[in-house]
Amino acid sequence: MTTDQSATGGPRPAAGPSAASGEDSPAGPPPGPTTSTEAARAGVSDGADPASGTGGGTAPTAGAPAGTRSTDKDPVTSDARGTSGRDNDRPGTASGTGGAKAGDATNSGDARTRLGDAGAEPGAAGTSADVTTDGDVKAAAGDAGTTGDGRAKDADGKDREDGAAEAGAAKAGTDKAGTDKAGAAKEGAAKDDTDKDDTDKNGDGKESGKSEEGGKETGKPDRWAAFASAPEPRPSWVRRAARAVGRVLIHEWTLATLGSLALAVLMTWPTLRYPLHTLPQDYWDPSLQAWQMAWSGHILLTNPAQLWQSNTFFPEDWSFAFSDTLLGYAPAGMIGTGPEAAVLRYNIMFVLAHALATLGAYALARQLGAGRIGGAVAGVGYAYAPWLLAQAGHLHVISNGGIPLALAMLARGHGYSLRHGYRPERRHDGWVYTGWLVAAWQLSLGFGIGLPFAYFLGGTVVVAAVTWYVRRTWFWAVKRPFGRRLLAADLVGGLLFAGVGALLAVPYFTVKEQHPQAERTVADIGIFSPPASGFFTAPAESRIWGELHEGARAALPWHPEMTLLPGFVLYALAAGGLFFSVWKLRHRLLLLAGVVVTMVLAMGTRFFDGTYTYVPLFEHLPGWSGLRTPGRLMLWTTLLLGLLAAGAVSAFATRVREICAERIPSWPGPWLRLATLLPLVLVIAEGLNVTPHPVVPQQPAAMRTVAGPLLVLPSSQNLDQPVMLWSTTRFQDVVNGGSGFTPHQLDEVRRVTLSFPDQTSVDYLRILGVRNVLLMRDQIAGTPWEVTVDAPVDGLGITREEIGQVVVYRL
What is the reported pLDDT for 337? Predict the structure, then answer.
């Protein structure tokens, strides 16, 4: 049985006897030069007789029968096979698709030409053409009396083909034509692929796109083009910008930041309910800290050289260094004036401090290798630990987020994590610079939290440098580089951090010399040292444990600084992290050791009188004697417990994913999802609070009009702190002030003025430089001024004026 070759080179049955013998296929004219594009159009069969049913074909691929050759370019892998069409069912007639002409094929994309058979008459042979994306043509010539000779030549980067197509047509056995017809295909000279389409002509000088009979065009658009995928339109700049914004909004760190902010608003509510009129916990220390932010912003804009000579504690020098300054919040203090602006600023920074603490601990846990949920547990546990609820009135303690954030940035810059170790390819000096800057900013908020951080950072640098050198010298088979740029970043950043610390320390050492009573003693530390039971006692502000632990708090000598519960859930998760964790065993043991050491230090002199623990630090480390409350070191215990918990939760989440991978479908079910989120929910629940938000005393009108230096009576530690806040309208000098210690001068003023107005107190205040005295009628109940407020002032050389509820004495 005779066979015909298809476009794929495989055999198929011939259409009839004449196709088998090939004897009735006369040779055509000599082949002329053709381009690959024109060959694709002509299908290498333009000279064939339309009625004969014969035509050219594509050259076979490798393994095709002899006598055919392919071009030197690989074709598109898609099949393009000649299909036996039945469009021409009348003998001797060729329809638009039944002729042996190939459809138009351009150079810009895939063009597949399907040539139908010439009908049901004997001798008809189907042909096919496959045109590649470069315009190359594969021609497969069947054995049905069709012969072809193709030659490919590559010259000057362009594809050219010199081919000849000879087609013979056998007599169809009908009564119309008695003689054989022969057609010849001639193509024009080769052109570049980017030129316009060439014009094909047949052997008679007519356009090959027209049939012999009527001149009707057959080069119609490919009917299969409608099924091709439409080209994707180029998006406009608006859509591209929207996509870029969308990618930023769904990024992990964007979501982490927004989540931290939202959680901070909810967990500190109702701080932002009446942000102009209320303060969290009480209005004593928060008033002082609201004044600190307002003063630093005001003085840096007006007279930076007088930063440390504040308007309070007149006439004392260096009065801004009488307590932690929150100097890092000075940019916020530059916005707005007056007590209401100061209260609003404080409340905003109070919420943002919680958000930064959450984000910083999350970033540190993630950098060390914890999963997202594990990082969230570490962040929430660090920012909303129950013991911190007792510190709600101390913004300098709440503002601790720079500690884990700086550590995360430094670890990122050095390419280090607990889970993966040191990876030199992940080093980035930019993160190192940023980490040192954040560390310096954290130090500027106050030494109460910043000083232990500075010593921890210095010790970590020394230990890390020694460990890296030892491993690189004796343990690593391949020496891992550190890099000069990274070393330069550490040197510059470390010097910057040390320089900021030294500049901030100078005023405090000066105050220590001028006011020796400001220095703490071991006995003072013993007053604020918590017992071991404090680590399991929650403050009254805890919604979950507050009432339940009322009896335990009553047994503590000073419960505001001794209720140090980090959370029972955090304890449980950290304990689980010792046995089931993503951290290596040695890292878990190191974290456990850190937890134990920090808890011992937080106990101050309660742990064997601190002889070998806290007291050596108190006596030998510069600045450590200025720390009054060792219990605030619980901050480090909480951070380390959070990292242990993050390791356990991350390992649990990994196990859940492994279980889900074995399921069909492979996504976790609702119960598994809930189990993964349960630790986070429990940690959040344990951080809920019932912190009071009292209304701040309203500023007297006299504070807005009376110039300084002035004294406000009555005067005490708690009463003077709102006075400092009232002074933020004019920042006039005031004798009043509240801080961590009371200067002798202020003590003397309070003692002498108990008999005011009298000649002794008036003369004393004049010598001191005071020009006005404000006596608050609504605060004098039960004081000596309740009797003397209306006494005559004749003969004292002063005047008295009533401004609202304030009696103003002008000296």
Answer: 92
pLDDT, mean over the chain: 78
Is 54:170 a contact under the CB 8 Å cutoff?
Answer: yes
Report d(CA 776, CA 755) in Å as an integer.
15
H/E stretch holding 161 reads strand 158-168
Residue 346 has pLDDT above 70, yes or no: yes
Q: Which of 5-9, 249-253, 258-262 has the lowest average pLDDT?
A: 5-9
pLDDT tens readout for residues 210-222: 444 444 445 677 7
Q: H or E stretch including 703?
A: helix 702-705
Distance of alpha carbon 141 from alpha carbon 14, whole angstroms? 12
Sign of the C-alpha dihedral computed for residues 288, 293, 298 and 299 taken in this order: positive
Decide if 56 contacts 44 (C-beta within 8 A).
yes
Structure tokens, 152 = 């490919």
Rounded CA-CA distance 739/724 in Å is 11
Strand partners, 775: 713, 807
Q: What is the 3-state secondary structure (H, E, C) of 347-408?
A: HHHHHHHHHHHHHHHHHHHHHHCCCHHHHHHHHHHHHCCHHHHHHCCCHHHHCCCHHHHHHH
Contacts of 330 (CB under 8 A, 6+ apart): 293, 296, 297, 300
Show the 3-state SS of 734-783.
Answer: ECCCCCCCCCHHHHHHHHHHHHCCCHHHHHHHHHHCCCEEEEEHHHCCCC
Reply yes or no on whether the pLDDT at 404 is more than 50.
Answer: yes
The terminus-to-terminus CA distance of the chain in angstroms comes to 132
Distance CA(400)–CA(361), nearest Å, equals 10
Write the secondary structure of 199-230 as one string of H (helix), E (strand) and C (coil). Answer: CCEECCCCECCECCCCCCECCCCCCCHHHCCC
Residue 807 · residue 711 · CB < 8 Å: no
Q: For position 708, what pLDDT does the model report?
A: 86
| Res 765: pLDDT | 95
β-strands 710-713, 772-776 pairing: parallel
CA distance 758 to 519: 35
Which helix (H) or strand (E) segment holds residue 465: the answer is helix 447-470
H or E stretch at 288? helix 285-302
| pLDDT tens by residue, 590-625 | 999 999 999 999 999 999 999 999 999 999 999 998
- pTM for this entry: 0.72
Q: Is the pLDDT of residue 33 over 60?
A: no
CA distances in angstroms from 152 to 72, 87, 131, 610, listed in the order given: 7, 34, 15, 94
90-111 pLDDT, tens digit each: 333 333 333 333 334 333 333 3
For tokens 């080093």, the residue is: 427
Radius of gyration of the chain (CA): 45
Q: Going by C-beta distance under 8 Å and a sequence separation of 6 or more, which residues neighbour residue 599?
A: 535, 634, 637
pLDDT bin (cut points 50, 70, 90) of residue 667 is low
For the segment 675-726, what is each residue's pLDDT rounded down to a tens digit? 889 999 999 999 999 999 999 999 999 999 999 899 999 999 999 999 999 9
Tell me the C-alpha distance between 436 and 438, whole Å.
5
CB contact at 8 A, 191 and 36: no
Q: Are 145 and 123 in contact (CB under 8 A)?
A: yes
Helices of type H across 471-620: 484-514, 522-527, 550-554, 568-577, 585-602, 614-620
Q: What are phi and psi of 542, to 5 degrees?
A: -75, 125
The three-point CA angle 747-748-751 to 5° equals 90
Tokens of 712: 């406000």
- What CA–CA distance (Å, rounded) separates 722 from 666? 61
Please write the tens of the pLDDT for every residue from 772-805: 999 999 999 989 999 888 888 888 889 999 999 9
